[in-house]
Queue: 2 jobs
Job 1
Amino acid sequence: MRLALVGAGRMGRRHAANIVAAGHELAAVCDPDPKAAAQVSRLTGARRMELGKMLAAGAAEAVVIASPAAAHAAAAAACVRAGVPFLCEKPLGADLAASRRLAKLAAERGAYGMVSLNRRYDRQFGMLRDGVKKGQVGKVEIVKLVSRSEKVPPLAYVKSSGGLLRDKGAHFFDLACWLTRQLPVAVQATGKRLFCPELAAADDHDTAMITLELADGALCHFDFSRRAPYGQDERVEIMGSKGMLQCSFPPAHACVRVRADGVAEAAAPKSTWQEHYAPTYAAALDAFTASLRRGKPPPIPIGAGLLAELIAAAAARSIASGRRTPVDTAGIDPACVAA
Amino acid sequence: MRLALVGAGRMGRRHAANIVAAGHELAAVCDPDPKAAAQVSRLTGARRMELGKMLAAGAAEAVVIASPAAAHAAAAAACVRAGVPFLCEKPLGADLAASRRLAKLAAERGAYGMVSLNRRYDRQFGMLRDGVKKGQVGKVEIVKLVSRSEKVPPLAYVKSSGGLLRDKGAHFFDLACWLTRQLPVAVQATGKRLFCPELAAADDHDTAMITLELADGALCHFDFSRRAPYGQDERVEIMGSKGMLQCSFPPAHACVRVRADGVAEAAAPKSTWQEHYAPTYAAALDAFTASLRRGKPPPIPIGAGLLAELIAAAAARSIASGRRTPVDTAGIDPACVAA
Amino acid sequence: MRLALVGAGRMGRRHAANIVAAGHELAAVCDPDPKAAAQVSRLTGARRMELGKMLAAGAAEAVVIASPAAAHAAAAAACVRAGVPFLCEKPLGADLAASRRLAKLAAERGAYGMVSLNRRYDRQFGMLRDGVKKGQVGKVEIVKLVSRSEKVPPLAYVKSSGGLLRDKGAHFFDLACWLTRQLPVAVQATGKRLFCPELAAADDHDTAMITLELADGALCHFDFSRRAPYGQDERVEIMGSKGMLQCSFPPAHACVRVRADGVAEAAAPKSTWQEHYAPTYAAALDAFTASLRRGKPPPIPIGAGLLAELIAAAAARSIASGRRTPVDTAGIDPACVAA
Amino acid sequence: MRLALVGAGRMGRRHAANIVAAGHELAAVCDPDPKAAAQVSRLTGARRMELGKMLAAGAAEAVVIASPAAAHAAAAAACVRAGVPFLCEKPLGADLAASRRLAKLAAERGAYGMVSLNRRYDRQFGMLRDGVKKGQVGKVEIVKLVSRSEKVPPLAYVKSSGGLLRDKGAHFFDLACWLTRQLPVAVQATGKRLFCPELAAADDHDTAMITLELADGALCHFDFSRRAPYGQDERVEIMGSKGMLQCSFPPAHACVRVRADGVAEAAAPKSTWQEHYAPTYAAALDAFTASLRRGKPPPIPIGAGLLAELIAAAAARSIASGRRTPVDTAGIDPACVAA
């Protein structure tokens, strides 16, 4: 397949490598920074083009959007208008309003757009979803998600990415709905600045707890932190009427030292989330190109991205008000999490 | 030490056995049910007496109160008025108002009363508290407590015991404050009847999630369920600026079967919470009698019991209102959790 | 049941307590040391009697033999001659010849004798045996047993108990045969004095590895050490054509501390083997009295004790010669491990 | 660096990919099978050449030997004679005599040759070796190594590779010496054909247990199986006077399902040993080229490969004779495991 890449930064280069490794042609790369674009071009032979011209020229069958978050919506809208399928990193827009506009436009035009909620392609999370689907836990009652990052990202990134709830949260709000195949109803949330007071400048928090009620009554809890002293920590647990499913990242500790005082120390070669989730980006790309080839709808529709942002927005309001806050899912097709 | 026992039911008989095993004399047993009292009397040689007469006669140096929850406060108040030290099962009173009255009375009279929050004597929880105290996790940021029972208790017990928040919750609200040695500030809570609709008759829930803010900003989360399909499940996790501490019940799975499909099945001889926590009841009794002998204040003062009930009451109000609800700790001595 | 106890030392007192707790009458206690006998008598009301007189007087329906190892055979032989059933601690005799003589005598007289290989009553080992019996591992191919003690026993105990192979080894040689329900064929062994040179005085080793071939070809490996720096360590693993079963002691680590460097420290309240295996002594006594009451054969026949000693003797010869050494099982009824 | 590759089969292609990925030039590929050579040539641009001509032409600065085992020694000898450094897959020769001749020749000529015992580059094993070196276990007493493959290799491979002891065993015999930094003294071994009778044709076994005594008295045990029903299983444990170190492959089970009967099922996405050890081949290549560039001696000298084969040969003799068999390490430089 002949693809174009929008955004030649860190995430863009990752996509470029995956595109080549999967045997696709990277026909064009679009980035306002000529140096970044040139680097991707050198590595892959892609032509450096301005996005509008590239779409007008029909240079690519599909577009992968990996620009900074604030630029996603404009690039995606251009693809929609040109009738070119696209795979877009989350979030869809710079803010909820922008995301809503994009989703509306895409729906009106019947556009083919996939949002890259790549954690859906993690094999462990996949095993959990299969288990729920097969009925291994029965009716879902309690869902717990932990996401604690290794370290606080730069303040500039926090501001541009949408902060704890839209940036980190979106992945896990989506996971909760996708794993249980349910839409959310309401949210209660609390946020704190416990170790990173400078986040006040971005009106953001370093630590948050969110309780989300799902359509059939199950309670989900999210515990988010921008910094776990011991490294990246992500866990999912789903309890229902018949059992429980759990998984964690990193999956385990590889080497054990049993000390003379009887304490067992378990250590593993450290891995970053980038290493850990690397296969999911390639898998998301495969799912995108495979669905296009077969004329199928996108595996993760735009609505899924919008839904994650709607939950983030409701959680933000709940932190501010201290109140249980409904999540407005009007217009969201349940299939975006339940397919 | 010469002790009397109030209440000869299941919990009373457990106390009777521990009293004898610890080498104390069980001088008297008080229970309105003559059959129950007779059974304890036969086992231990204790005299069957009415509580008022027993106190008047000075039959015991101290009293252990293990009657049904609704009768705790009256028995404790009688001990206070008679100037006899007592160890009382939680909750202190039939409702928060009764508990407040008892706490006030005990404070006015300078009474010696200990509330039996026995989980404080679990060795694993003790290891966690020591770890926090020694600074192993640094400044506490996130606390997670799971408490899921093996099965829903009889409706009559639910009604008399105070329900999910006062009965089960009290232990874990106390643990959260005691492990971190902090008072609470506010609570957000959600409750559901997911599998036990008949709890509506007791205005109670089978599943609840509670987020508690502590004095220094740390966030605690509680996930309570009246029925885990796989058995009793209690876990505590404390993350801070320097690391994380975790423990769980049952502690582990003893036997592993690795199947031909590569799946490892881990199973343990089942143990009930009664077996698991049996040593904590004996340890609580030891702590009570030892502190009396040495003329020390009670290791778990009445204020600790009242604090747990105050959190439960605030959580109940938050479930009803959907709002973040302050916990009123006026008059609670921080030493009751921080000593 | 009316029982007598031979031996009022540490192990004898344990049996005395179990006898009383199980509701049996301890009618008599026999110990040449009047002080030891008096202590058991005071605790239980048992009469102090000389063994021969006790048997002649018909003072007990059955006898529990818990004297020092060197005295086992004489006491057991007296019971055989008097026609009184007995439960005997292992080893049967001071040496293999004494054990053979006792087994021969018991067989000739059709005596009821049970040897107390108490690890057979551990619930975890029981789960493993059930798994093998149900075919969970298919045809057994590899068996691994680890037994490392917390500390080197006193030299006097080593000398009287039969040393590493007869004392510690017997339990595990029996377990290997009992778990797989097979007789042994041959053994290869190596012994070392790595940290306890004074064991040379007892011609014993502190560390040994033994490979045992079973009747159907499976290979068992034993790794024995008199001192694990981190505490008692016992593990069993059974691999076959369809899967693997594993268990370990202590079963698990209860509390986990994840440090800032990502290392997870797991610690448990320490337990000694005496605490860990305490329930197995009571269970062995129950099995003994229950089989007597129902007129059934002893659950662990004398042959099982002899078999364990035969393996120990062959292993000792292999250490000395460096050669694969057959285990002579002529006359051993396979039912003693396979029932 | 400009490299040549001898052998364009499965292992050769792996090396070719690693050479390119590491940024080296693959100048030439030598394989008698023109199709295999052509495939590597197409992928990498390497010239297809006959080994002798390639060496004569000075086409490469160093050679990677990945031909079938029987052809290793001839290729390595050619490199030695041409004075070209080489990295050779194990075993060195078709049999012990061939390996000895190669080692002798290399020593005489002062050749630069590295044997690719790639497990030394596994990060977990590396953590264990570092732990031993730092004294975390104190004086080593007991070493246990498990190596059970997923399935029996084809009989043709068994015959050409040297069988269970030379093929699989060599890696683990080397690990035992390298982890403890000690030479071996003597070996006791037992071999069985439990599930693969056709191995009789290769005079080989499917299951073996080997006990190896190290220079300072520590006992090592190896349990080898050609087929674990649940998949590849490799484990290492080292106990000493101060503690224990352990690691296992696969390191852990990622997803846990706790069933309604309380059994926890742990499953992980399956990984083959090829996936698991993939990074070690790249790391071995890096170590080889880095040492060449810096003018350092080879990180794994030929002597290490010879030592592993000497242990394998002694183990084979012990299986045949049933006797403890010395390992002749005359002429082996201890530095090959202790550096």
Job 2
Amino acid sequence: MEITYRPIGVIHSPFTDLKEMPIQPTSAASAPGIAEVFPEFADGLKDLEGFSHVILLYHLHQALWVELTVTPFLGSAKRGIFATRAPTRPNPIGLSIVQLLRVDGNRLELGNIDILDGTPLLDIKPYVPDFDRPKKTRAGWLESERGKVKDARSDDRFR
Amino acid sequence: MEITYRPIGVIHSPFTDLKEMPIQPTSAASAPGIAEVFPEFADGLKDLEGFSHVILLYHLHQALWVELTVTPFLGSAKRGIFATRAPTRPNPIGLSIVQLLRVDGNRLELGNIDILDGTPLLDIKPYVPDFDRPKKTRAGWLESERGKVKDARSDDRFR
């Protein structure tokens, strides 16, 4: 079974190289960016401005191979890909929860992104605490890495 | 530009009809379910068991048309599709943050899902509060609907 999608837009960011990037929007190195939605989809942005955060789904177009176990940027052990946010996933869909600063026509001004410039955008969803904020969470192997995301940057392991 | 994905597995749930479903995992009507990952991807599940919650991405295979403005299940006004979680999106990718109860080989036992039985699974990501829990959020038009997700169920408007 094949599932085919088409980009609804493109991400613009200061990050032009997979090396030395922030590894998450909460990294200190993250930077403002733009999600440009193609004009034919702009009507779908109505009512989005009142949300402080959006969930972006995008195609990790520079993920060129699949690896089911990887050594992620945090920690030094090999982990199952579905227990990480690394890009070499069977379906390379990226997800970031980012601050929405302003909607200007078909452009979303975003406060803190960790996304490569030119990345194809697949979907935008409103972030809704009632839906998306589970209580009493435990972050598995990442518990011992808490607080480290801020200073971590990518290297060239997935390039 | 076309982007092609293949399912990594399938969701099993008690929900066999798009009508009368929970509209989110946090709805009272949500129920336990299973994410079955195809055997060839099972190695990717290593280390997932320590996480209390996972983010599921899936193909909304029963979303048969695209509508850029919709009347969602909460509220009565027409909204831009990207300001809702409705299924008639240009790329019908569903997202749920659900409780992970147990990993049993290639099967994830999930505590509370809002997903139609037989839905093709695209990706599994660990839920990580350090990455995924923004502070000081505002939920736009959904602020006035807070607390209503619990009792809301779907009807046949997207069927």
